[in-house]
Design a protein that fits this description.
about 0% strand; about 220 residues; about 75% helix; mainly alpha
Amino acid sequence: MACNSCASDKSDANNDPKWRRALWIALVVNATMFVAEMIAGVSGGSKALQADALDFLGDAANYAISLGVAGMALGWRARAALFKGVTLLLLGTYVLGATLWAVWDGQTPEAEVMGVVGVVALIANAGVALLLYRYRAGDANMRSVWICSRNDAIGNVAVVMAAVGVFGTGTAWPDLIVAAIMAGLGITGGVQIIRQAKREISASGQHGIFRLQVK
């Protein structure tokens, strides 16, 4: 599920090499799974897979922001988070719109594709969660990243259950229900990130996009 307590929103940065290496691995895994799952979701007609792919993209952005701007001034971290929030909101809106459209003019997704890709996604997220498990008791930055990965693994279980539901009922409803819930979470998360980013930009006094902070 989309992370609302993002690492990019935390003021402290941890530059430990092992921590950064774990984030790089998590970034590559999530970016790869976003591409693979979105392709599978579109080709297999599964809106739940597309919504889950959105989750992978959001997490990849979370890890990238944590790596790239965590040590910068608050204004620049907030702008990066604002970009992430807008992207998450737009993608969530797209998935929700596509889901609603599929209610009237959609096809029954391929349950086998949903199941296989859902299990692979679950393994990927569980692997990332285990990779970050050692940092679960660290500072707020570390805990937030691990909690997001753990929650995403739980969300993947819903996708697999949707695949079972599609296979058992022969209808698209389980897929559409899970997709709508996940898209809604993405939209909500995007809005929350945007609001917090705007507050932080205002607090930093950096209202111009290209204005550098003067200390």
